[in-house]
Design goal:
Methane Monooxygenase Hydroxylase, Chain G, domain 1, 237 residues, single chain
């Protein structure tokens, strides 16, 4: 991922911490896949596996942050190297929070299994949004590994699809609750799951923004998508 330096040990340090970030990403992706399956099958057993994985994710996050602090202290990086390390730290935090959302989905699945889910509610529709979010996170990690700004831009655009899925699902749930007050409790459980899915997409989007920060040095948080695209096209020409 990083450019070559005069110090081969510095290159080794950067590659090692980058690899650990990808390892963390793989763990979180696995959590999300398990959460999708637990949701589709209403499986408490698979939900428990998601909760167990959260312990490992949290431990690796702490280790990566410790490694980054050590590299900064020993190497005193500047310019792009410092941006890279800062971005890895922020990407690590976003991955851990995406794992938190997978854990939240698993806990809600366990609650739904315990309480029972009315057959009339559109629980299966959440699987589409969850797979969109999971795929988006995987694309973000791949783009981060390659520092691909065009792939990052595509991710920022795709996040809108998840937002649209969430908005449409909320409207459906409101209709169900208005028509039958007995579905309110289960509908709220599904709403919390839908919100967790949307946040996973947001974390993928945040990682995509970090790619642009590393490569271009531009902080594009809260910048309109059209302006980000225009700036990337201008710098490429």
């Amino acid at each position: 991922m990083p450019d070559k330096h005069l110090s081969s040990q510095f290159d080794s340090d950067l590659n090692a911490v980058s690899s650990r970030l990808m390892e963390l990403g793989g763990m979180v992706e696995s959590q999300i896949r398990q959460a999708v399956y637990a949701l589709s099958q209403f499986s408490s057993e698979v939900a428990d596996q998601v909760l167990t994985g959260e312990v490992r994710v949290n431990a690796l996050e702490v280790e990566i942050d410790r490694d980054i602090a050590s590299i900064i202290g020993r190497r005193q990086p500047t310019a792009r190297d410092l941006r890279l390390l800062m971005a890895i730290s922020k990407a690590t935090a976003n991955l851990e929070r995406a794992g938190d959302e997978a854990e939240r989905i698993a806990r809600m699945v366990k609650a739904i299994v315990a309480e029972g889910m009315p057959r009339s509610l559109p629980a299966s529709e959440l699987r589409v949004a969850t797979e969109l979010a999971s795929n988006l996170l995987r694309k973000a990690l791949d783009a981060f590994a390659r520092l691909d700004t065009q792939a990052a831009l595509a991710i920022l655009k795709e996040d809108n699809l998840i937002d649209q899925e969430f908005d449409g699902f909320v409207r459906k749930l409101i209709t169900y609750m208005m028509e039958d007050a007995r579905t309110i409790g289960a509908s709220l459980d599904l709403l919390f799951i839908a919100k967790a899915i949307e946040r996973i997409g947001d974390h993928a989007k945040n990682i995509a923004e970090l790619i642009i920060y590393i490569v271009k040095g531009d902080d594009v948080r809260h910048v309109p998508l059209a302006k980000i695209e225009s700036n990337l096209q201008s710098s490429a020409s």
